[in-house]
Amino acid sequence: MTARTEGATAGGGVGFLRVPAGFRAALPVILFLLVGFAAPLLAVIGFSFMPARTFGFTGQPTLENYITIFESTSYISLLWSLGLALATVLILILISYPVAYGLVRVFGRWSTLVTLLFVIPLFVSENVRLYGWLLFLIKNGVLLGTLKTVFGIEAESMLFTTGAILLGMVYVYLPYMLFPLTLGISMVPNDAREAASDLGASRWQVFKEVELPLSMPGLVIGCLLTFVLAVGAIAEYKVLGGQQVIPITHDIEIAFTYAQNWPLGAALSVLLMLIVGVLVMIALRRFDLDKFLGRR
């Protein structure tokens, strides 16, 4: 090896060593995210500007697909998805906050472990659990059959309605709201509660001024996690809704499969990601994530 080659090799090695150790350690993860996340995302964004019913990056970029979305009824599907996702979040707040609060006050430091028990149903396929609700709600099923046989009550099935869809979404996404809420409430120090009580605060004032603000990071994370998952729901609409309500995810699926219009499906996906991303960023700006994670 010549002296010039040795110098270049040594210089290259020294140059790599000058890179911060944290960056070198994170380089495999960065490459994985670029290949596994950024590249497919960029491909979807690029496809959304291709002419309709093309299967490659051919032709001149166009906004035709986005114009088609707003000229068709796809925006109605988007509104349904956003509206039902928001309703799911609100219902889960009303259900999960009292449950999480009770778990923390009863089980104390073991509350997070107890909450993990609610995650056990997640090991069963979502479709299997939803078909269980289908058998429960169907006419002459578990619920209506029991009411008719035992009590002689004739009732209409709520299956294939908006209420059934909401029921399925609340059931499926309950753990995603409950676990962050339990974690957030468990981080509220008892000293703060006791200090507020000693200063003459009522029970409602302690909750409003101390417990709720300090548990807000857990509540926000639960809301974001639930909302993002609920917007992308599709099984609940098919199994319990019977296509009475068409979500945006159904339009995306049809565009990519039966319609064979990948650019339109990509445009719908980009629009959905953009709206959800903006809503998430707005919510994240309302609390200090670094403080919640204990970084400062």
Structure write-up:
This protein is mainly alpha-helical and 296 residues long. The chain has a single domain, classed as Orthogonal Bundle (MetI-like fold), CATH 1.10.3720. The chain is built from 14 helices and no strands. It has helices at 3-18, 21-47, 64-71, 74-107, 111-115, 126-137, 142-151, 162-186, 190-198, 203-231, 235-239, 248-256, 262-284, 289-292. Helix 3 packs across helix 13 (262-284), helix 4 (74-107) packs across helix 10 (203-231) and helix 4 (74-107) packs across helix 12. The radius of gyration is 26 Å and the shape is globular.
What is the number of independent domains? 1
Give the CATH architecture.
Orthogonal Bundle
CATH topology: MetI-like fold
Helix content: over 70%
List segments where confidence is low: pLDDT < 50 over at least 5 consecutive residues.
Answer: 3-12
Main sheet: strands, sense, barrel: none
- List how many beta strands DSSP finds: 0
Q: Which descriptor suits the 3D outline?
A: globular
Helix segment tally = 14
CATH superfamily: MetI-like
Range of strand content: under 5%
Secondary-structure element string: HHHHHHHHHHHHHH
